[in-house]
Amino acid sequence: LQRECHLKPASINRTLISLKCYFGWLVEEKQLSQNPAKVVKLLEQEESPPRHLSDQEEQGLVAAVTNAGSVRDRTLILLLLHTGLRASEACTLRWDQVQIGKRSGLLQVVGKRNTYREVPLNSTARAVLLEYFAQIGGQSLYLFPSVKTRGALTERALGYIVTKYARLAKLTDVSPHDLRHRFGYRMAETVPLHRLA
Residues 165, 64: contact at Cβ < 8 Å? Predict the structure, then answer.
């Protein structure tokens, strides 16, 4: 697997774990007297940093959704880039969770394990949301409804939307979580980490 197929350690370890489990089961079922895979050690894996978009990739993605996308899709992608929302948080965001004033705004987000937090909106996020409100204006309970069901957008559908515009921008392997990482990396340049957290 390593020398001939040139697989990465994570892929090799998945295969080894499957073999260990299989031989362990054979020993339990008394098909074998001992587990030959028990002594096989897993490979060390290198921890790679999370992927995030470069400035050019971000500009390409925004240009692609602006030129070819709907107002919903453009607002969704820009909001992900400028707030760092998780995919699940963006999908279930409701109109009543958005507060926009002339010089400030925030999103009231319920995140993992029902934790509540307020996410500030910068001028770009406020402008795109105001434009979206003017065109769509509360036709659904959810801020970004599914076109088919009018209910909450699913995380899978959000992934499809991001992938669609990433392909148009000639980017590969971009997920909604990469947009969150992009926000985090950009904010970490100017904001202390304890505040960013």
Answer: yes
Report d(CA 54, CA 75) in Å as an integer.
Answer: 20
User: If DSSP states are collapsed to H, E and C, what string results for the chain?
Assistant: CCCCCCCCHHHHHHHHHHHHHHHHHHHHCCCCCCCCCCCCCCCCCCCCCCCCCCHHHHHHHHHHHHHHCCHHHHHHHHHHHHHCCCHHHHHCCEHHHEEECCCCEEEEEECHHHCEEEEECCHHHHHHHHHHHHHCCCCCCECCECCCCCCECCHHHHHHHHHHHHHHCCCCCCCHHHHHHHHHHHHHCCCCHHHHC
Paired strand residues for 100: 105
One-letter identity of residue 39: V
Cα of first residue to Cα of last residue in the chain, in angstroms, is 40
- What pLDDT was estimated at residue 48? 67
Per-residue pLDDT tens digits for 3-51: 888 888 888 899 999 999 999 999 999 999 999 988 889 888 777 666 7
Distance, CA of 47 to CA of 120 (rounded, Å) = 31
> Tell me: the pLDDT tens digits for 98-108?
999 888 999 99
